[in-house]
Amino acid sequence: MTHLSVQERYRADLTDGEGQPVEVGYIDYTQDGDRLALTHTVVFERFGGRGFAAQLVKHVLDDVRANGQRVVPVCSYVQKYVEKHPEYSDIVVS
Asked: Which part of the chain is the N-acetyltransferase domain (predicted)?
């Protein structure tokens, strides 16, 4: 996972057979102070159905917590994820 703060994006990559990164998907956000509004989650079709979206959201939420920030789950996938994972309720705001 790579945090591209200038682009306000977290990106998930895999390594191909030649050791080169291949983008699997990303989460876009907007930041306002210590709050990150997670606006859009994408996993590219060829990587779908393998749990990459959940891994990406978990990584972002863990990073947000580690940095003392909070999230506003705008994206419907992130909303459903935090509903199923109440252990993140301490960092979720509306």
From this structure: 2-93
Over the stretch 32-60, which tens digit does the pLDDT of each residue have? 999 999 999 999 999 999 999 999 999 99
Provide CATH code, domain 2-91: 3.40.630.30
Residue 23's pLDDT band (cuts 50, 70, 90): very high
Tokens of 23: 């983008």
Kindly write down the DSSP assignment for every residue of 5-69, as one continuous string.
Answer: GGGTEEEEEEE-TTS-EEEEEEEEEEEETTEEEEEEEEE-GGGTTSSHHHHHHHHHHHHHHHTT-
- Residue 16: phi and psi, rounded to 5, are -80, 180
> Structure tokens of 9?
């994006």
Name the DSSP letter for residue 89: G
Delimit the domains of the chain by residue range: 2-91
